[in-house]
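tokens incoming
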């Protein structure tokens, strides 16, 4: 196999897809997988036979992961379906950073106890809580809530965003709506929280305060979305302009953001004259700390895994393999949660890299051949090829899910992606100064403000272009 990890990943994905469509029994899958594993050991030197058996084994492992992810504990909330739609008391621990927007706080609760029909039950499972009002809730708080428990809505139409399936892929089968006049009781705080996650969220809150204090409300909301993964406060017209211009990916913490962040860290560590191995090791730790702080969303985790493999390769002086790193990232993510395969963010995240790897080089080679490989336009051709390649690869998926196509995205990404490096550099410098050297904040805040305002001006200009985007009903 030319790219063994890529082929293994494809086989795993096919197993997950088949298992999601056909009812399979875990026990028999497990038995067959064990037999195939033993055959792989005995035929390890057989070349072609071994490769075929290995791919079949990976296919079965994907099916096993999918079936296992859908198996629920005996006391899982989903087994208490009679209580769905009723008002209940629910006790549990907050397991993510609560998001506040429009006089409502949303967070995930790891359920522990449920009271319904005057009877308490020990339960398990994640619940999405939507709490009306502006109550202060923090990560790892243990709460007693009263509200109406219901299942998410399902839409049968293909291509339409399906809240039920989206939440189910995350292991969330219920939503608890808590009215503004319902009591919210904190039993104790940080009872079972991870101290690293708690510290990361505290730092994020501090950085959010720095941007709010030193930037305008609009620029602050954009910077928080760009660097901290906080998109709830982004104005609706700005978010719609990003969607219409095909540049909404810039507010998702991804490889570009993490790459620029790591570059800044490495430059700083090099200025401190640290040894090469120490620089890369500290950069990897800082990278994962940043990923944790921004909420560990899928594109960030994928980029963090790829960056870790890349930096580890530099530490041992090996040439990095982008396709291998991408495949490893997919394998790790799907091993933890195979349901991620069906999420739009997973598909867009990995398809964008695959498009850059396979489509962009062919466009670039064709254009350079047409231009006779010469001239000063080569850097511009490279940027155009990357933008066009990503657009061609992602457009069918975006059209299917969001019913929009944006030709203006080709031009937009040619300008915005390189310029975003400046915006992120200015933003990171401002936030770090606010965290460690507040006296330097007045020096860096004007640069961050201006860079964001220029970015928004250009996005609005693109959004107003005739025939820049088409919406399909």
């Amino acid at each position: 196999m030319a790219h063994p990890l890529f082929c293994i990943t494809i086989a795993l994905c096919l197993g997950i897809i088949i298992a999601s469509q056909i009812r399979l029994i875990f026990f028999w899958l497990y038995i067959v997988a064990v037999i195939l594993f033993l055959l792989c050991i005995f035929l390890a030197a057989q070349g072609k036979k071994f490769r075929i058996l290995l791919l079949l084994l990976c296919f079965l492992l994907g099916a096993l992961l999918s079936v296992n992810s859908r198996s629920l504990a005996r006391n899982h909330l989903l087994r208490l379906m009679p209580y769905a739609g009723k008002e209940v008391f629910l006790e549990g621990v907050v397991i993510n950073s609560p998001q506040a927007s429009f006089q409502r706080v949303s967070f995930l609760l790891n359920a522990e106890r449920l009271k319904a029909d005057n009877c308490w039950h020990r339960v398990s499972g994640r619940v999405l809580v939507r709490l009306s009002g502006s109550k202060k809730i923090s990560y790892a708080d243990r709460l007693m809530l009263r509200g109406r428990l219901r299942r998410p809505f399902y839409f049968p139409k293909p291509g339409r965003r399906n809240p039920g399936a989206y939440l189910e892929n995350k292991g969330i089968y219920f939503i608890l709506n808590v009215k503004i006049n319902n009591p919210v009781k904190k039993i104790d705080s940080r009872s079972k929280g991870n101290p690293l996650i708690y510290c990361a969220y505290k730092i994020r809150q501090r950085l959010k305060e720095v941007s709010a204090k030193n930037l305008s409300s609009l620029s602050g909301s954009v910077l928080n979305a760009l660097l901290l993964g906080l998109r709830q406060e982004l104005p609706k017209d700005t978010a719609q302009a990003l969607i219409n211009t095909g540049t909404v990916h810039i507010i998702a913490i991804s490889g570009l953001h993490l790459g620029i962040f790591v570059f800044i860290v490495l430059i700083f560590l090099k200025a401190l004259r640290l040894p090469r191995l120490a620089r890369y090791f500290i950069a990897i730790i800082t990278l994962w700390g940043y990923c944790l702080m921004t909420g560990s969303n899928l594109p960030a985790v994928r980029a963090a895994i790829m960056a870790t493999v890349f930096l580890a390769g530099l530490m041992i002086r090996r040439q990095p393999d982008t396709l291998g790193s991408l495949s490893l990232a997919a394998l790790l993510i799907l091993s933890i949660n195979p349901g991620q395969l069906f999420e739009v963010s997973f598909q867009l995240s990995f398809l964008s890299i695959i498009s850059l790897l396979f489509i962009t080089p062919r466009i670039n080679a064709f254009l350079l051949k047409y231009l006779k490989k010469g001239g000063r336009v080569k850097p511009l051709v490279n940027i155009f090829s990357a933008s066009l390649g990503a657009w061609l690869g992602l457009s069918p998926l975006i059209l299917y899910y969001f019913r929009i196509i944006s030709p203006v995205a080709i031009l937009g990404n040619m300008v915005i992606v390189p310029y975003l490096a400046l915006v992120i550099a200015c933003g990171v410098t401002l936030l770090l100064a606010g965290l460690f050297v507040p006296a330097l904040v007045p020096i860096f805040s004007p640069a961050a403000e201006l860079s964001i305002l220029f970015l928004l001006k250009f996005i609005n200009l693109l959004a107003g272009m005739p025939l820049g985007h088409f919406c399909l009903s």
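note: The chain has 16 helices and ten strands.
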